[in-house]
Amino acid sequence: MSGPPVVAVDIGGTKLAVRALADGTTVHERTVHWPRGADTDVEFGLLAASVAEAVEALGGAPARIGVAAAPNVDRHGRVTVWPNRPGWRGRCLRTPFVSTGAPVLFGDDASLAALAEAHSAACPDLVHLGLGTGVGGGLVCGGRLLTGAWGSAAELGHLVVDPGGPVCRCGARGCLQAGASGPALAAYATALRDRPTTTADLVAGVADGADWAADTLDHAADLLARALAVLAEVVQPERAHLGGGLGSALTGLPERVAGRLPAAARAGRPVPEVRTATHGAHASLEGAALLARRGAGLLGGERVA
Ligand SMILES: [Zn+2]
């Protein structure tokens, strides 16, 4: 594979991942957890140092830097919203990259994950759902990222799939995210077992074949199938890829969702093929690398598949 030297960055809620690529080959990759309780200056410093390390591994300035960002970033590079880190709001996210001298492109982490999955699967109609701290969604339709009129379409975590379900962080009741995110599934399993249960316990329980874990997985599968049934009506994806840190780790989840889809969808309606994300929990970083290689057109309607 060939390609210009680039750096890809994934700024997530709990982790920061940086990869350097030369001729399409990874020459450096590192993931660090954000230090607990650190202030924004320390976090920006860590970001700058991690990027500098990747640039050094390349042995020269990258042609471009692609950034998959969990925070919302405006066209000037300023953070507009990040509920996870209120201190980032209003800060210019270009600052930690200035010393590289390279052009920086920002993209929504969930959108970039969808682009990476569609590109790798050569599938022009694909939905990606990332299960982790929340539920992130991205849609590729007709080979292009679905952006909507204001650039922030496909907030699939806020599809209401369970009107009697838990209240979401957004204030609505029954959002997909309120039922199928990592914290929501941990809470569901905790109630089921009547003992504190983490997402790591859930992953282990699924691997061990524990009944409570299977029940929790079925609950998640129900909610995901309802969301996919709606999407099958609206945009008719050919494939649904389940990713994110938790979504990639729950063995058997795609099969359970697929098993529920025919009943959740309208009779006779074609439903997507459900799979684990090709790039697993790294789909956003992969998408950032794709953005760095291909340029801003990818977010502006250029075909990816
Ligand atoms: Zn919501």
List keywords for this structure.
9 helices, Nucleotidyltransferase, domain 5, binds zinc ion, 5-stranded mixed beta sheet, alpha/beta
Descriptive notes:
The protein has 305 residues and is an alpha/beta fold. It folds into two domains: 97 residues, Nucleotidyltransferase, domain 5 (2-Layer Sandwich); 170 residues, Nucleotidyltransferase, domain 5, CATH 3.30.420.40. 37% of the residues lie in helices and 21% in strands. The protein has nine helices and twelve strands. The strands form three sheets. Strands 3-2-1-4-7 form a five-stranded mixed sheet, with helices on both faces. It has a five-stranded mixed sheet with strand order 10-9-8-11-12, with helices on both faces. The chain has a two-stranded antiparallel ribbon with strand order 5-6. Helix 4 runs antiparallel to helix 6. It is globular, with a radius of gyration of 19 Å. The two termini are 18 Å apart. The model has no long low-confidence stretch (mean pLDDT 96).
